[in-house]
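Hi! If you just cloned this repository, the fastest way to understand the data is to look at a raw example. We've pasted two of them here, unedited. The first protein comes first, obviously.
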Amino acid sequence: MKNYYFKDVTSCEMCGIPSTNHKVMGMRLNTSQGKNPKAKIGIAVGVIRCTNCGLVYSSPQPIPKDIQDHYGTPPEEYWKAHYFEWTATYFKTQIDFVKTRINFSDGMKALDIGAGLGKAMLSFKHYGFEAYGLEPSIPFYERAIDKMGIDPERLKLGTIEDLEYDDNSFDFITFGAVVEHLYSPKLCIEKALKWLKPGGLIHIEVPSSKWLISKYMNAYFRIRGTSYVTNLSPMHVPFHLYEFDLKSFQVLGNRIGYSIDHYEYSVCEIYFIPRFLHPLLRWYMKKTNTGMQLTVYLRKNN
C-alpha cells in the first residue's frame, strides 16, 4: 500500500493565477476507472482546470512518501523484451529537428531528464552529441547501465529536484513524457533552463488538456450520472498529475525567460471509441489540434 500526503493547490503551477475561481471538472479515483467508476471503491481527488491558461491538475495533490513507490517498478513489468533493444531510429526525428535549430556541431552536450533505459542517450551519442542523463527510478537506472551499456559517469540517479549541473552546460535538454509526472513543473523547467546555454532548446512532450477523446469520455460519465472524469491518474499508472495547454507554456515563458520555438499536436492512440469512427476522429483532431499529445520546443532567451 502506497503512503501519501496530500497538498492543497492554491495557485496555477504554470501561470500563477490563484485557484479560487478555477473550474472543478470532477473527481479521479486512485485506480483505473473503466466505464463504471461508481462501482469501484477507492480514494478520489478533485480535477481542476485553470481558467486562465488551461492547465488541468489534481487538488489536493497526492504526493508519495517515497518516489520509488511510483517509479521503482522493474522495467520488465512495463515493457516486453524487444523494448530493451536500441535502434538508430529511436528519437531520431527530434534530434534531426533540433540540429536544424541550434547550428549543431559535434560535441554539443545533450541532457535527457527521465532517461529511463538510456535509449535517447544512445541516440544522442550516435548522432554526435555528448550524452548525459538523470533517472529517478532505481531499477531503470540499473538496467540502463547493466543492460544498455550506459556510462555510469554520464547518468545520475535521482530526481531533477535533488540533482544539480553547472549553469549554461547543455545545448539541448529533453523531457520526453516527464513533465506531467513532476509535482512542480515550473520549478523543474526553470531549473533545466539554468542548465541550458543561452539560445539552447528544451524539448517537452506532455498530455494535452484539449484532447477530444477525454471530452467524449467525460460527457459519457455525466450521462451516467457521475462526477468522475477521465483526466489525469495521480495515484495509479501512469501517474499523470497534469495536462497542458499551449497557453500554459506561453505564460510560463513570460515568467521565467524562454520563448516557444516550435510546437505541434499529435493524435496518438484512440481509446474507448468504436474503431470505425477512428479515421474521422483522426482527421478532426489533426485539423483542430485536439490530439492527445502536445510537443513544445522552448528556446532560452539570451
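Ok, and the second one:
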Amino acid sequence: MADSNGNIYANDSTYEEVYELKNEQGFVETVIIRRIVVDHYGYGVVYEQTKNAQGKSSYTRNGFSITEFEWQNESRRKSPYKK
C-alpha cells in the first residue's frame, strides 16, 4: 500500500493523518482523522473518523460505514483482514 505520492507504507505498521476542512472565513468545519493499518504482508486498511462543527462523528473502514467501537478497536492495531 502506498500514499498519493507513491511512498510505500512499511509493513506491520499504523499511520495517522489529520485533515482540517475550513470555510471561507477560515474556521474549521470538519476534521478528518485517517488511520492506515498495514499488516505484515503489506495489505492496508483505511479507517476514517469525520467530525463536523456540531460535534457529530462518523466512521468508515475502506469507505464503508462502521461503528465507533470498531474504529477504536481495529484502527489502532494490525489489520483484521488477511490477504
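That's it. A detail worth noticing about the second one: The chain has one domain: 13-74.
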